[in-house]
Amino acid sequence: MSTRSETSLPGNWSIVRIGRIAVPLIILALWQLGAEVYGQFALATPLETFETMVDGFQDGWMVEDLLVTVTTLIVAYLIAVVSGVWVGIMLGLSRFWQEVFEPVILGTYSIPKITLFPIFLLIFGLGMDSMVAFGWFHGVFPVLILTMSAMTTIDDTHMNVAQSLGLSQWQRFKEVIVPSILPGLVIGLRLGFSLTFLGIVIGEMFAARAGLGHSLMLYMETVQVDRMLAIITVLVLIAAVINAAFYIIEARLRRRAGSSGDVAAM
Amino acid sequence: MLELHDLSKTYGLNDSSVSTVNAVDGIDLTIEEGEFVSIIGPTGCGKSTLFELIGRLIEPTDGEVRIDGDTITEPDERIGMVFQDTSTFPWLSVIENVEFGLKMNGVDKTERRERAREMIELVGLKGFEDASPTELSGGMNQRVAIARTLVMNPDIILMDEPFGALDEQTRLILGEELLRIWRETGATILFVTHSINEAVHLSDRIAVMSARPGRFKEVVENPLPRPRTDEVLGKDEYNEIVNRLWDELRSESKKGLQQKMEEEAQEHGAPEGVQEHGAPEGA
Amino acid sequence: MAVESGHGIGSVDLGDRANRIRIYQTLVVVGLLGLIEFLPRFGLVEPTTLIPLTEMLSEIVSLTLSGELTPHIIQTFTAIFAAFALGILTGIPTGVLLWRYESLKDVLDPYLLTYYAIPVFAFYPLLIAIFGLNIMPIITIAWLFSVVIIITNTASGLKEIPDIYPEVGKNLNLTSAQMFRHIYLPAATPYVFTGFKLGFIYALIGTVASEFILAENGLGWLISFSYDSFDVQTMYASMLFVILVSLAVNIALIMIERRLYRRART
User: Fold this and answer.
1) A44-256 maps to which CATH number?
2) Which among C137, C228, C225, C154 has a CA at the least distance from the CA of C192?
3) Residue in B with minimal Cα distance to A240
4) Which of B37, B87, B129, C66 has its CA 20 to 30 A from that of C184?
5) pLDDT tens for residues C42-56?
6) B278 and A7: CB-CB below 8 Å?
C-alpha cells in the first residue's frame, strides 16, 4: 500500500522537470506555427513580438501604459487588502454576523461583476478613480471571504489558552489570530490580486484614457497585432511572476505549519 | 480447498532507486472446505498484502494460489472479499449494493433482487433495503459488505479485519453473526485480524505471522469446542490458548515496532530527499 | 469561536439562533434593496446615476414584453451553452488523461495553478482581430475561461476516489469498461459536477464580460450600449436582469450539487 508513492516519484522526476521546461517551448512553437499559417496580419511571430516589446520599452509607449496600469493596480490592491482583511476579521470574530452577511457576500461574488462597471463610471467619472474603485470591487471579495473562512479555522483551544494567559486584545490578535489565519489569508491575497488585476484590465479595455488594456483595444482598431501581442505578453508575465511569488510564500507557510489543515479549496 | 503455495511478495523490485521490501515470504497453508482459519500478526507484518495476494488483487512475486487444485491467475469468482474500510458504494442503496456483483454478471433483475433480499435478511438488515449506506452505522455497513460478498455464493470468503474499525460490543455481536452465517452457508472463511481474542473466539485454526518478512511462525489448532458459549470461553483451555498465542506474538510485535521506528527514523533522517519530493508546488 | 449563547445546546436555543440569523439576513438584503429604491426616489442620488429598484423591475418587464430583450438572451445563452459544451467535450477527456498519466499532471500542475491568475480577457481583442467581430471570439474566451476548472475538477475528482471502491470491482473481476461506468464514474460524480457548476458560471461570466467589452448584441452588450447612449433606464434594467439570471443559475446549480454530495459520503 505504501509502496505506490515510493515507486512513482524518483524515476519520473527528471522527466517531469524536462516536461515543465518543454511546455513554454511547445507554446512558442505553436505560436510560431500559427503566425506562419495565418500570416502577418492575424498573428505576429514570437520573435517579432519580442522585438516590439523591447521597442516599446525603449521607445516608451509601453512604459507609459505600464505605469498607469501598475499604479492603478497597486492602489486598488492595497485598498482591497486592507478593507478585505479588516472586514473579514471583524465578521470572522462573530459566527453570528458572519452567517448573516455570508449570503450577500457570496452572492455578490458569484455574479459577473464587470456588468456593474458602468455604475463606477457614473459615480467616479472616466478617470483613474473609477479604475481604482472598480479594481477594488473586483478583487476585494476573495480577500474578504478567505479571511472570514480562515477565522473559523482558529482552534478554540488556542483562543482559550490565550484567554487563560490573560493576553490583551492586541496580543491575542498578533500572537494567535494572525498566525492561525495566515495560510488561508495568503490564498485570499493571491486570488484577490488576480481578480483586481483582471478587473483593471477589463475596465481599461472598456473605458479608459490610458493603460495597457486601453492600448490593447486601440491597437486592435488599428490592427497592430505585434503591439497587441507585446502587451498581452507583458500582462501574462506580470500575472505569472506575482502568482509564482505567492505560491512560494504559501509553500513556505505550509512547511512551517507542518502541513496542517488546508483552508478553503477554492 | 484453498492452497497457498510458497506465496511471496517483494515490493520495489522493478525500481532501481528504491530499496526492496520483502512484505510476504514463502507462505504455505492448506485450508479445508468449510474451515474457519484466522491469521494474526503484528502491525505491518504483511497481513493485508497476503489478503490482496490471495484475492489476486496484486500479483505475487513468487508462488501460487490454488482452489481445488487449479492455480488461479486473476480475481476468481469462487473467492469473495470483505474489506476493512467501509467499502459500500454511497451512490447506491443497500439493496443495490448487495446485488451489484450479480448485476455486473448479467443476472436479470427479478432474480438478483430476490437473492439480494435473502442475503439482506441473512445479515439481519431486513427493512433497510432502500436506505443509503451514508445513513447507516459502520457495523451496519459491514453487514451490507458481507451480504454483497455472500450473494455471489463464493466458496471461500476472505476477510481483512472486517470489524477492525468497530467498537468492542459491535465487534462481538458481528462475530457471533458471522459464525451463524458461516454455519448456514458452509463457506470456507479466511479471517485476518490483529485481535487474539477474536481469532480464538471464531476460528478452527490460527496462523501466527512473524514480523516482516511475513512468514507463518506457527499454525495453531484451536481445541475449544463449538458452540463457543460463555462457559467454553470461561474455561482454562481458553486462557491457555490465548496466552500461548500471545507468547508467540509478543516477540514479533516488538520486532515489528522496532522496524517501524527504524523506518520512520530513516524517513526523517533524509530531509533533503523528502523536500525534493515536496517542492514542486512552489516551483 | 465563541458561540453567542453560552451553553445553548437546547434545540429551542438553536432554532432561536437560526431564526435570528434569518431575520437579520432579511434585514440586510431589504436594507440594501431599500437604499437602491429610496436614495434616487428621495433625490439623494441623481436620477442620471441611479434609478429606483421598482423602476428597474418595471423596465425589465416592458423590455421583455416588447421583445427587445429576447434576441440578446438568445445570443448570450447560445454563446454560454456553446462554450460550456465545448468545455465539457474537451475538459473531461483531458481531465481523465491527467488522472491516468500522473507524470503529465505533474508536468502541467504549475501551469494549471497559474492559469486563472492570467487575465484571459486580454486575448479577446486579439481573437477579434483573428476571427472578426462575431460570436466566435466570445465563445473562445468563455471556453478558455471555463475549460480548465472542468479539467482540474475531473482529474482531482477521479483521484480522490478511495482505493477501496476499485478494489471491490477488481475482486468481482470487472472489465475496464464496467469499472469506469459503475465505479469510477459514480464515485467521482459529485466532484466532477462541482467542475461543471464552476465551468458553467465561468462560461457565463466569460460571455457576458466579452459582450460587455465589445460585441454587436447580447446581454453584456446591451448594458454597455445603453451606458454609452446615456440610457440609464435600459442600462440598469439589463444589469439587474443579468444579475438575477446569474443568481438563479448559481442557486440552481448549488442545489443540484448539494443533493449529489448528500448521496455521496459525508
Assistant:
1) 1.10.3720.10
2) C154
3) B283
4) B129
5) 888 888 889 999 999
6) no
